[in-house]
Amino acid sequence: MLFAGGGQEAYRRGMVVALQPLVVGALWMILIVLAPSALFWIGLQIPKIADAIRERRAARLAKWQPRGAPLEKLVADLRRLRAELVYRKPNSYVQLTALTRAYDDVLESTCACLEQPCQLCELPIGRDRDIERLRAEAAVQEAGIPLELPGRRGDHRAQGHSLDE
Length: 165
Description:
The chain is an all-alpha fold and about 160 residues long. It folds into two domains: about 35 residues; about 80 residues. The chain is about 70% helix and about 0% strand. α2 packs antiparallel against α3 and α3 crosses α4.
C-alpha cells in the first residue's frame, strides 16, 4: 500500500498522460501509411470525375443548341424552291422530281423546326404525298410563315406575261 489515498488516482492520471503520446503516435503512423494510398486512389478518380462533369455539361449545353439549320435559312430555301416549282416549271420529269423532293425535304425540316408533325418523306410519290404536302404547307402558314415571296403574289411577269398586254 504504497499509494495511500490519492496515490492511486495520481498513478492512473500519470498512465493516461503517458499513453497519450502512444495514441497520438499510432494515429500519425496510420495517417502516414494510409495517406499515400488514399491520395493515389483519389488521383485515379480525377479523370473519371472530369469526364462525368464534361459529359454533364455537354448534355446540358446540347439541350439548348439548335438542331439542324436555322429556321430563317429553311424558310428562305422553302420560298426559293416553291418559287421554282410554281413559277418556273422544270423542263424534264427528272428535274421536276428532284425539285419536288428537295422542296419536300426542306418543308419537312421546317415542320420539324416548328414542332409540327409531317410525314412527307415517308409517303410514296402520289396523291397521299400531295395531300400531306398541302397539310404541311398549311401548318407552316398557320405558324405565321408565309410561303410566297412578298413580291411574287399576283406578279404575272414571273409567268411570262407582261402588264402591258
